[in-house]
Amino acid sequence: MALNHHEEEIVEEISGGEFERTPVPKSKLKSWKSFLGMYAGEHAAGTEFIIGPLFLTAGVSAFDLIVGLLLGNLLAVLSWRFLTAEIAVKNRLTLYYQLEKICGKNLVTFYNLANGILFCFLAGAMITVSATAVGIPFDMPMPKLTDTMPNGVTWVIIVLVIGAIISIIAARGYDTVSRAANWMSPVIVIAFVACGIVALKQLGVSSFSQFWDIWGTGSDPFPGQIKYTFWHVVIWSWFANAAMHIGMSDLSVFRYAKKASSGWTTAAGMYVGHYMAWIAAALLYAVYLKSPEAQAFLSQGEAPPVAPGPLANNAIGIFGIITVVLAGWTTANPTIYRAGLAFQAIMPKTSTFWVTIIAGTVATVAGIFPAFAMQLLGFVALYGFILAPFGAVIVFEHFFYKKAGIIKNYAEEAKIKFNKAVMISWAISFGLFYFISIHFHVFLSFVTLPAWLLCGVLFLILSKVYQRKFK
């Protein structure tokens, strides 16, 4: 679920950074083949090594995991196809320019700040992933599932070194990063397949029924985790990339598509990465849970560590260690670069190099604290919950502005820098449903769609009110 790496790849490699404030011309449009490999590679990344095992810590059953992921990923593909791609080929604008037209420049600055910080935290989780592999030769104690603080000096040093290297590479330019990632993506996909096959052999699986029995009817969640049911898996996997599809971030990708049907290519990412890779990573953890070390943790009432490096090393040896390092690297690098661009929009006079270094520093500090990686399911849910409602503003305006009788691209037409209708709509929807989630202990992903819908409806109503003055 490499958030927004593919966005920058399209923008930087295909267009060379052009058309940031103009619609993409017909001469630059790309066929569906340009998106297929991109999505397949970008969603089999460092995050997958963490997400798969975390499903097991939530006590999922075989049906919940296998069928739930099948349905949830389908809903994600449908969101990309009928919302993101549909709007992208109509307007052919980046998310940021589209938001600026509706919200105003000052409000987009707020969005960029939130986006940049959240990207830094995600990159920090990927630095954590790579550190679990680099630490193996040093016999480094791996972070536990419930750890929030670093567990030793060795961990801190390794994270700082990895973070520094990643930040410097990202700051020196995106072309090298994206090309390297393209070459590494097939290797990472092959490694996931190999890990899955080896793990099945280690588990003694020779039939589908034995494969199904690995998770059986589920179990109690590990200490510190919540129980995931079928609907937890469905809704979480649907909104794992909420910021990209219903949040409209991938407008910047699909504005290059000849047809909206190119949105179907996201299925390659969902079913190679978010299905095959998650299940393969879960199998690695299933093998580990049978080990004496894991059983010792469980017997003491503790959750066994979810450390991608040792899990992959146990399955495919040195190739697994290298793959985990590469997977974390290829996700963290573009994510830091992307965060740097968001910060540069706030500090336009600061060079790309230095804003990327700032983003990398924030990400590295975040990587020192294992909580961002160990609680990745919760973090990803929060990420989508915060940013997705901004996409609702674009969707509801696009499909309903005529029926609602409001002016399209109001901030641009009225020459305002801050559209109060957008901010109030987001604040109410976010505040209300976040309160419901916290106060009534409702799974955050369950309220992402209601928050998104409420934000869109409120935007139409409030726009009608505020735009009377302009008319």
UniProtKB/TrEMBL annotation:
TM regions (residue ranges): 110-133, 153-171, 183-208, 228-247, 268-288, 311-332, 353-373, 379-400, 421-443, 449-466
Keywords per UniProt: Membrane, Transmembrane, Transmembrane helix
InterPro entries: CodB
Domain of life: Bacteria
PANTHER family for the chain: CYTOSINE PERMEASE (PTHR30569:SF0), CYTOSINE TRANSPORTER CODB (PTHR30569)
Name this polypeptide is given: Purine-cytosine permease
